[in-house]
Amino acid sequence: MAAKTAAEVTRLSVDDKKPEVRNKIVVGGEGENAVASLTDALKKAKPGDTIILAKANVKIPSLKLARTQFKDLIIEGTTHDGRPTVLEANGNLRFLINVDGIESIRFKNIEFDGAGKSDHCLQVSGAAPGFTVEGCTMKGAKTAAILFVNAAGTESQPLLLDKVRFQLQTRQTAVILETTGQNDTRRLTIRECRFEGVGGQVGKGIRFEAATTDVEISNNRFFSLESALYFGKPIAKTIKAQIASNTIYDSRTGLEFDLNNLAANAFDLTVRQNYFGKTPQVAQGNGGKGAVPGVTADTNAFGPDSKPGNVDLKLSQLDKPLLPAPEANNDATFLRFAGGQPELNGKKIGAP
Question: What is the mean pLDDT of residues 32-37?
C-alpha cells in the first residue's frame, strides 16, 4: 500500500467507523497542496477537506461559501507566538465569511478580526447542521461578530459555538439572532464561551432580535458588558431558549427585556442556575416590570454587590463565596469560583 502524502490525514468515519482520508490544503505552506491565499484554497477545496492556515496573519475580502462545495470543510488556524492565526478584513466589508446553508463546516483555532472595517466576522443563514466555531477569538466587527439569519441546525447537529472568546468595544455585539418573514433561528448551542467588554462595561453579549427555537446558552462567562443578554420583541412567533449555568460579572445589566406592548406568546424562556456578580441591574425591563409572561426562572443567585433590577427572576442573594478578581489572561481562573461552583437548593450555580 502506498504511503500517505503530507497532504493527507486520517480520521474515523462517523457512518462506518473505517479510516477515511481527509485532504489538507495549506495556506502559506510548502508542497503540492500549498497555496498562497485562503481564496486560492477555497477554489481547490472539495467536501471533506481541511484548510490549514499556516501564516500568522491572513487578510481576506468578503468570502461567500457555496453550499455543495464546502460540506464538512474544516478551516483551521495554527499557533504563532502563543496566538492563533489572525483572519483579518482587507477593507470595508459586509462580512469576512458568509456561510449559507453549508452542512458541518467548522472553524477552529482562528482569531477573526473585523479590524473596525467589517460589519460581521461570520454571517450564517439557511440549514447548516453541524456548523461549528471552536476555540476561536472574535473581535473588531463593527456590528456583530456573528450574525445568524434564519439559520438552522438539527437535534443531532445543532449550530454550535464552543469555547469562543468575544472581545467587544462600544456599540459592538458578539452574537445577533435575526430572521426574516415567518422564519426563526433553530437549534443553536452557545456553550463555554467568554464575552468581554474591552475598556469597561461596553458592548452586548447576545441579542435575540427575532423568534428562535431550541436555543441553549449555557456555561458561559460574561464580563464588563453593557448587557449580557438582550431580548427584543419577536415580530412573529416566539423566542424559545434556555439560559442556564452562566456567570455574569461587572456588567451594567444581566438580562435586558423589551416589554413595550409585549405579545402574550413573545417568550418561552427558562432562566436557571445563573450567577450575577457586581451587576447593578440583574434583570431590566424596558416598558414593563415584574414577572415576564413566558419566562420561567429557577435557582438564580446574585452576589452582595449586585441588585435584582425590576424584572423578577426568582433570585436568591448569595453572600459567599465571592468570585476572585478576574485575570483576563488566566482562563483557568477567569470568573470561576476558587472552590468550584457554589450550590443553592442543592443545585450548582454559575459557569463551571
Answer: 94
